[in-house]
Amino acid sequence: MMAAFFRFWTRQAEARPFATIATTEACLSACGDLIAQTAARQLVKEGEAREYDIWRTSRFMLYATCISPVGVRWHRFLDRRFPIRAQATWWLGKARRKKAPAAARVRKRAERMGAAAQVAKRLACDLLIYEPAAYAAFFASMALMEGQGVDGARRRVAALVVPTYLTSLTISPVIQTVNFAFVPLIYRVPFGSCFDLFWDTYLSWVNSEGAGPEQPHGH
């Protein structure tokens, strides 16, 4: 069942990359917000629980749908700007090392070092450029869609972007290193999105806390 779905998804992503990724991101963001709202309702005291906010989930889905093409183009840009010209063999078994000529081993080591350098450059660009900008866009968009206006968006960005970014640095470098080093381009956005299901839950909670109970939630 899962293998059939994976093949179907791959065919759709190859034929319609932007639509397929947008749909995938919208579904995952909706799941993340649903988990966040469910967890929040379990943690509050009896009588204080808020009803499920379908508009909040809708805002998450809308944002994910609109921002997903940026993620696709970003990964394509990194692939072109920092290409790995040969498919790097990151690990070479002991038997293969013994059989391989010395010149081949030296060449393969150089290929791996070159590939590792390109992965490091991709990772640095992603962590230093894309992620901070993405968090700023996320919190600003959420505030605007909630009816907070430009001033509210500025306040939320100022209050939440830096702590959220610092939290992401505890796990994002590991995930993105694997993503850039081993995952084919077509799967990189959904690969990250599998982990983003949990990260979206966290972002939903952070954004909700940043909005505050006194602030209105526009539809």
Fraction of residues in H or I helices: over 70%
Distance between the termini: 37 Å
| Poorly predicted segments | 91-95, 212-219
Query: Rough shape?
Result: globular
**What is the N-to-C succession of helices and strands?**
HHHHHHHH
Strand content: under 5%
Tally the helices: what do you get? 8
Biggest beta sheet summary: none
Please specify the SSE layout and strand pairing.
Layout: H1 2-15, H2 17-43, H3 54-81, H4 94-99, H5 102-145, H6 149-168, H7 172-182, H8 185-211
Describe this structure in words.
- Its main location: membrane.
- It is found in: Membrane.
- Keywords: Membrane, Transmembrane, Transmembrane helix.
- Belongs to the peroxisomal membrane protein PXMP2/4 family.
- It is a multi-pass membrane protein.
- The protein has about 220 residues and is mainly alpha-helical.
- The protein has one domain.
- It contains 8 helices and no strands.
- Helix 3 packs across helix 8, helix 5 packs across helix 7 and helix 7 runs antiparallel to helix 8 (about 185-210).
- The longest helix is centred in the middle third of the chain and has 44 residues, at about 100-145.
- The chain is globular.
- The two termini are about 35 Å apart.
- The relative contact order is 0.14.
Tags for this entry?
0% strand; mainly alpha; globular; 219 residues; disordered C terminus; single chain; 8 helices
Summarize the structure.
Helix content is 81%, strand content 0%. By secondary structure, the chain is an all-alpha fold.
